[in-house]
Amino acid sequence: MEFRLSPRQEEDRESFRAFVSEEVAPHADAYDQAECMPGAVVKEIAERGWLGAIIPEEHGGGEMDPITFGLLCEEVGRGSASLLSILTVHGMVCQAILKWGSSDQKARWLPKLATGEALGAFGLTEPGIGSDARNVETEARPSDASYLLTGRKKWISFGQMATLFMIMAQCEGKPTAFLVQRESPGFSTEPISGLLGFRSAMLAKVHMDECRIPAENLVGRPGFGFSHVAGAALDHGRYCIAWGSVGIGKACLEACLRYTSERKQFGTYLKEHQLIQQMIARMITDISAARLLCLHAGHLKEIGEPRVIMETSMAKYFASRAAFRAATDAVQIHGANGCGSEYPVQRYLRDAKIMEIIEGSNQIQEIIISKYGYH
Ligand SMILES: Cc1cc2nc3c(=O)[nH]c(=O)nc-3n(C[C@H](O)[C@H](O)[C@H](O)COP(=O)(O)OP(=O)(O)OC[C@H]3O[C@@H](n4cnc5c(N)ncnc54)[C@H](O)[C@@H]3O)c2cc1C
Predict the structure, then answer these.
(1) Cβ contact 199:277 at 8 Å
(2) DSSP string covering 66-79, please?
(3) pLDDT of 286 over the 80 cut
(4) Ligand 1 atom at shortest distance from the alpha carbon of 157
């Protein structure tokens, strides 16, 4: 199957690329070192309509088609994986509400999420529960016309900044999704620092102590939290991570093409050495294959084909592994310079490792994909 971008998609990609090259990539190492994403950057992407990209126009969003959105994720991922993660987690909240929210929830939240007036974060993981996500230990207890949530969440991207959290909790003994506003009584966050990668993704722990939220903030119904609501969110998350991983791979390749054309050893440019060419060839091929899987998933999303969920898992699995291979080779090619802070390839390697862990680790993707093989 051949994928050809439309002239409009090509044009959009050029504008994403120009913005990322000029406004994001030159500052990404500084954000990484400061472990902080400036509010002005988030505001800028909100003003560009990117936080509302996947939201339909009727709810105030940009209604971007899946492939254009993928191209956006690729470009943002090329500049900063931490910044990509806001498109990921905010989009996961949007997607879950779009798919499983009541009409009141859609009317109330989607227009605010579309403009960035509300910033979404996704709260599934806990200190004691990661991959086994349907067994979260946070509890939601009905009380008058409210629910009282008690529990802890950990590793919540943009948890330091978000205003609207989608929280998974057990309700009537079943996994259930809730929308929780930052200002809810009994809700607080605590920044996480010192991460390997995604250092400017503003991660936080979330504490809920009898956190009171209105009963109408339950999304779907009890028991739908993991299989339906989180399922829709994670599918979006994997799609973003797959494309963002292509972006990291591309950043590695660009850095290596530059470096090997400038640095000489044994009297000739690095690019003339065949063992270097081998790593470059693997990088080019991996990126190309990963992008094709992403385009395929995007195409299936566009036509509403149900097996898109599996194809998206495969794209995430392959692309994150490809990004990690590209990043480790990129550091190798840069030698000692690859280990220092003057070149970005060490950040690419740290961020690529994270891509293999989040939105369902690659072992979890292997379990999902292999089960699919037996169907
Ligand atoms: C930078 C970053 C950002 C994150 N952002 C968010 C966020 O916004 N929201 C959120 O909810 N979470 C977030 N997470 C958490 C992330 O989703 C989890 O780390 C991930 O789901 C894996 O869970 P875990 O770390 O608890 O590992 P565990 O589940 O404890 O797994 C440990 C290891 O065992 C493997 N493993 C687990 N089960 C099996 C099995 N059945 N078979 C084979 N191997 C298995 C895993 O693959 C992993 O290698 C983030 C994490 C990081 C590092």
Answers:
(1) no
(2) HHHHHHHHHHHHHH
(3) yes
(4) 8
Report all structural domains of the chain as residue ranges with CATH numbers, in order of start. 7-115 (1.10.540.10), 120-223 (2.40.110.10), 226-374 (1.20.140.10)
Neighbours of 318 (CB within 10 A): 22
pLDDT at 1: 63
Q: Quickly count: other Cβ atoms within 10 Å of residue 229's Cβ.
A: 27
Q: Are 177 and 224 in contact (CB under 8 A)?
A: yes
Residues with CB under 6 A from ligand 1: 89, 122-125, 130-131, 155-157, 195, 198, 201, 203, 354, 357-358, 361, 363-364
**69-105 pLDDT, tens digit each:** 999 999 999 999 999 999 999 999 999 999 999 999 9
* Residue 128 CA to ligand 1 centre (angstroms): 11
Q: Of 193, 361, 365, which is best to mutate to test ligand 1, by the most ligand atoms within 8 angstroms of its C-beta?
A: 361
Q: Using CA atoms, how far apart are residues 123 and 263, in angstroms rounded to an integer?
A: 45
The continuous run of DSSP H or E covering 47 comes out as helix 39-47
pLDDT digits (tens, 9 = 90+) for 294-351: 999 999 999 999 999 999 999 999 999 999 999 999 999 999 999 999 999 999 999 9
The number of CA neighbours under 13 Å toward the Cβ of 51 is 26
Q: Indicate the average pLDDT of the chain.
A: 97
Q: What is the pLDDT of residues 222-281, one digit of tens each?
A: 999 999 999 999 999 999 999 999 999 999 999 999 999 999 999 999 999 999 999 999
Residue of 124, 125, 370 to test ligand 1 pocket, by largest number of atoms within 8 Å of CB: 125
359 labelled catalytic: yes
* pTM recorded for the entire structure: 0.98
DSSP string, 124-167: ---SS-SS-GGG---EEEEETTEEEEEEEEEEETTTTT-SEEEE
Residue whose CA is at the smallest distance from ligand 1 atom 16: 358
Question: Could you tell me how many residues make up the chain?
Answer: 375
